[in-house]
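To close the chapter, one final illustration. This time we ask the reader to focus less on the individual chains and more on the assembly as a whole: which components sit near each other, and how the overall shape emerges from the parts.
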Amino acid sequence: MPTPNPLLLIAELSYRCPLHCPYCSNPLEIGEDRYRDELTTDEWSRVFRESSALGVLQLAFTGGEPLVRKDVEELARVSAESGLYSTLVTAGTPFTPKRARALREAGLDHVQVSIQDSDPLESDRIAGTTSFARKIDAAHLARELGFPLTINVVLHRKNLDRIEAIIALAEDLGARRLELANTQYQGWAVINRAALMPTREQIEEGERAVARARERLGPRMEILWVLPDYYEEFPKPCMGGWGREAMVITPNGDVLPCQAATTIPGLEFDNVRERPLAEIWFESDAFQRFRGTEWMPEPCRSCPFDRQEVDFGGCRCQALQLTGDAVNADPVCHISPHHSLVVEAREAAQSSDPAAPLVYRTTRQLAARN
Amino acid sequence: MTETILSRPQLAPGVRLRWDDVRERHVLLYPEGALTLNETAANVLELCDGERTIDDIAHELSSRYDGADVRSDVESLVGAIAGRGLVVDADT
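The assembled structure is written out below.
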């Protein structure tokens, strides 16, 4: 099977962020010096032009908080000139009227604002900073300027019971899309798993609430509901399959097949400062290692469900995290020999202590945290 | 035949139609998604400008295709894309 051209570039412009969400998918090492050596405006601009020539259609400005950088307006302009469809993924607090108008003029296509909860105090508590009111202002502002708006809410044990209020809030804000993403246990969420993992009843009630809302709203507001892996029977195709659709570029220019790929020991990542993007996509070790189906061990290799090219073996980072080896089948799969680890984590959640203290995301050095 | 609710269809705000040089196809781009279009679909969507009616679009394409009756094809295509919220009515 020939390697397809990428469709999506996730540009992590900076790991700095005014929020401290305890489920952040950024790596735990975001405080390390190498990530402070951020790509310059010219370097990102070159990367965006190269990505367009390589077939990328969608570009997401994310982070951390992308707007901590002063050049997002310039980057949006370069993106528009390159024909890319651009999305700003923002916490909302730095999305001021002045910057929002400049971004609109620069040709930014779409704005996604994260909200942590429909309850203002709970939203602020999870964000680790007073931010709810400014997020609401940002969402209104995006709509006033004519941006299509996505509201993004990460779901977990502490906010799932308010799912109907969360849907109603997105509706009130005029969102065209609502992303309800159950916490994926990567990055900071791993150390907060006991406090964040929902109960089965919460997930089931959440699914019912989403089904009712979809029925009521039709195409007026699209609701994306991402089930937590731990409650699935089959794994998800991580990033649409390793090295098939998407690439992630870290603030310092490393090119990754997924946001969490740096957790996999032994993978070598190329950097856009050293190699052209097309070469990295087609040839780099990190992209080649788990691309296609050749690398798969059993039970994937002879999958009785013929899902090799449906879920592509699932998530490598999850396989590593739970089984200790990234080459194993994703243990979410019910026929994985390690599936009992997922079952145990799920069962532990039924009795886990919802009052367990949260470890908040920070770009301070980990040593300083302990 | 399904009756369309759109009188003057246009791309919804935030939806863009463009040529993809790499895949040599038209694509419809929208928040977090892309739809690869065949030539017929691209021809129809290019005419969804909020001015032309379904009849106008059908008439214009028909003249390009030796007078073939394409109205029901235009209607079902616009209806399908509208069902995904990517085309809306300019009159509402």
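The mean pLDDT of chain A is 92. Chain A touches chain B at residues 5, 7, 53-55, 57-58, 83, 85, 87, 109-110, 112, 146-148, 150, 176-177, 219-220, 222 (CB under 8 Å). With these observations in hand, you are ready for the problems at the end of the chapter.
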